[in-house]
Amino acid sequence: MNTADERLRAAARDALGIFPSDGELPPLSLPNGTHSRSSHVGAASGVRARLLGTIRARAWLTPVAAGAAVAIVIAGVVVARQATGGAAASGSGNRSTNSQSAAQNRERAQLDALVVKAFVPATGPQYDAGSRLLYLIQVRELQATAKCMAAAGYHISDQAAPFNLSTYADNSQMPDLQRIASTHEFVPPGGIKVPSYSRAEQHAYNTCAAQARVPFKGLMSVGRPLMSQWWKVIFRIQASGPVRARIPALNTCAARYGFPNDPYGNASGPIKAFPDFMSWVAGFMDGAGSRGASNATLRHLARHWTSVFVTCARPIVGAWERLQIAAQPGFLAQHASQLRKLDKLAWQLLGHHSSH
Fold first, then answer.
1. Kind and range of the H or E element at 175?
2. Is residue 108 assigned to a domain?
3. Which of 232, 220, 112 is nearest to 173 (CA)?
4. Rounded to an integer, what distance in angstroms lies between the CA atom of residue 333 and that of residue 317?
5. Residue 342 in domain
6. pLDDT for the residue numbered 108
7. Residue 6 domain-assigned?
8. Of 167, 218, 301, 308, which residue is 20 to 30 A from 159 by alpha carbon distance?
9. Is a pLDDT exceeding 60 seen at residue 355?
10. Is residue 16 part of a domain?
């Protein structure tokens, strides 16, 4: 992982508008496969990393503060829906109906909030939470794929592996500093499982997986341009004067921990952008991994370098997260019609009332 890689991935994210041009997500990792080697910092191994070229950003902001903007923006939609549901329920005079309607409203409000975090995240915690929407989609795709494969005479498990941030994490533009500080890991241990199939079974799988993605293309066709526009806002904020003003302090902090020395030789110059710092930190983890370091050594290195990362990243990540949180409500209000479409599609596809 190096600075050039980060910039190429960032450019790819902008060009692709977050999701691939065909609107399809990569297939869900299947159980009982083999593990590919994953980066210790989760820079390129995850689904969103491949789609976005990003790495995540939560800082020392409290979850309440980080989520406040989302709650305010979607409140009008949620309250209107609850009021409508409540009126219908009270008219029926049926307690069971009231209870069912209230539960459905709560579920839909939670799904609405998840949609915002998935497509328009302003902080690392929001980005992390939003990854669960992608996971839910992939779970449904796996179930449909397994059913299709069974009809073709093949068996794959329809039970998805547990949600794992190593599939999605982003530590360059959306780092979750609170999670990193508490876990002493850039991403949870794990990797992307790559199933091994015969040629005929692979052909059947490809066909079934493509069919399984069809129901979600509408959701992605609405979400992709919204996400693309939002990440342009993110790029502008993270390249803005108030954020750039934090770069000298980032250099000073990194120097206290040995910058520019790194496992691959001295860095070519001062840190000019946050991905330069991320690449420098990553070098110590990836360098040790490439030399065959033991798990114990890697855990020791992770404990040290996650502490360095959080300490030095805190001021600059805090600066851009404050600006992103401030920009989020206006952006969502401006794109309210797209958001409502996403909410409706997500509910149709992922609500408990939908077919599993």
1. strand 175-176
2. yes
3. 232
4. 25
5. yes
6. 87
7. no
8. 218
9. no
10. no
CB-based burial, 187-202: b 16+ in 10 Å, e otherwise: beebbbbebebeeebe
Number of domains in the chain: 1
C-alpha to C-alpha distance for 274 and 30, rounded to whole angstroms = 34
Instruction: For Cα atoms 162, 163, 168, give the angle at the middle one, nearest 5 degrees.
Output: 140
CB contact set of 351 (below 8 Å; sequence gap of 6+):
104, 107, 108, 111
Side chain identity at residue 96, one-letter code: S
Top pLDDT among 56 and 349 is at 349
In terms of pLDDT, which residue wins out, 105 or 114?
Answer: 114
Q: Using an 8 Å Cβ cutoff, are 174 and 124 in contact?
A: yes
Instruction: Please state the pTM of the whole predicted model.
Output: 0.70
Task: Give yes or no for residue 213 having a pLDDT over 60.
Answer: yes
> Is residue 3's pLDDT more than 60?
no
Helix (H) or strand (E) run with residue 177 in it? helix 177-183
Residue 6: closest CA among 191, 230, 227, 235: 235
Q: Is the pLDDT of residue 16 over 60?
A: no
Host domain of residue 145: 59-166+198-350
Instruction: Provide the 8-state DSSP code for 246.
Output: T
